[in-house]
Specification:
With 106 residues, the chain is mainly beta. It has one domain: Beta Barrel (Thrombin, subunit H), CATH 2.40.10.220. It has one helix and six strands, in the order H-E-E-E-E-E-E.
């Protein structure tokens, strides 16, 4: 997994240039769950990278997602982090966290 993360960082730097975010992101590549907090079943997503302030996710369809939701580590995780969508592309979304915490808290 460490080799994959290194390759992702090299490719990211090559195509996007040097990282300019205020809070550095950590590549994680893991499954997470998007909970709309409205009683509907959570949506599975892939968490690509995370920082103290936000994360990038890949989703099957961003159109069905609310602008604000809870990101959970597992489907039945009682905790989670409240977040809001800050950008959307065809398959990816960028989110910012409302509650403070470190990238390791997720």
């Amino acid at each position: 997994m460490a080799l994959l993360q290194t390759i992702v960082e090299i490719v990211r730097t090559y195509y996007r240039g040097v990282e300019r975010r205020k809070l550095p992101r950590k590549t994680v590549i893991d499954t997470a769950w998007i909970d709309a907090d409205d009683g509907t079943p959570p949506h599975v997503c892939v968490l690509w990278d995370i920082s103290e302030g936000g994360a990038k996710l890949t989703v099957a369809s961003h159109k069905a997602l609310p602008d604000k939701f809870i990101l959970r580590k597992s489907r039945d995780d009682a905790n989670g982090r409240r977040c809001a969508v800050v950008w959307r592309s065809t398959e990816e979304i960028g989110i910012r966290f409302f509650n403070s915490g470190s990238a390791g808290d997720f």
